[in-house]
Amino acid sequence: QSSIDSYVIHMDVGSVRLEYLSDEGRIAALHRGKGPRGSTGAVELRALERFVGDKGLERNLPLRRLERAPVMASVGVIGAGPAGLSCAYQLARRGHAVTVCERAPEPGGMLRYGIPDFRLPPAILDAEIRRITALGVEIASSKAVGMDVPVEEIHSRRQAVFVGIGAQRGHVLGVPGEEGPGVWTGTEYLRRVNEGVRWVGS
Predict the structure, then answer these.
(1) What is the pTM of this model?
(2) Distance between CA atoms of 31 and 95, rounded to whole angstroms?
(3) What is the C-alpha to C-alpha distance for residues 9 and 72, in angstroms, rounded to an integer?
């Protein structure tokens, strides 16, 4: 079988060896029985999801729409991080009109600003977001609700509002000197790196 759907269907019924589904051999396990290299038969779900996601982007597969909701709504989403994008995706695939307001220059939230590029390449994130906007979702970047866009305007123009502003503030340890110059939390450091901020010595 060569299609992603066939792999997934066979995996559900437990009737196929899931060996080297990708060219890189990221998935090498059995759904039943003993797998190669002495594995216990467990399927690496992370690798399987990555493989399916990569193939979907490679083949430019559109996201599936669901049956339209009986009542269409106009929904405002505050925050284009994982929660906001997931909410917008689920609403849009049911036919609702969704507009997302994001204060950062680019959507993605911690997916973009809190994860190193080698773990989540920006090109992959951008491609996934394009699949969501292809459903009709509008994303207004550099629009901070309460500053650039009044909260009252969001409520007056939408029938529902979802707030997904995330948790991007790092935790401090409560030790002396942690508020000194050049001392950052992990989230602040990752944001600076992903924003391309240069520091001393660069």
Answers:
(1) 0.73
(2) 36
(3) 33
Q: Which contacts of 166-170 are long-range, i.e. CB under 8 A and separated by 24 or more positions?
A: 166/79, 166/81, 166/82, 166/83, 166/109, 166/110, 168/109, 168/110, 168/113, 168/114
Alpha helix positions (H), 25-150: 45-58, 82-92, 110-113, 122-133
End-to-end CA distance of the chain: 50
Query: How many of the other CB atoms lie within 10 Å of CB of 20?
Result: 13
Question: Assign residue 88 a region: left if phi > 0, alpha if psi is -120 to 50, beta otherwise?
Answer: alpha
The C-alpha atoms of residue 171 and residue 126 are separated, in whole angstroms, by 28
Distance CA 125, CA 53 (A): 11
153-189 confidence digits (pLDDT tens): 988 999 999 999 887 788 888 888 888 887 888 888 8
Q: Which two tokens stand for residue 41?
A: 């038969």
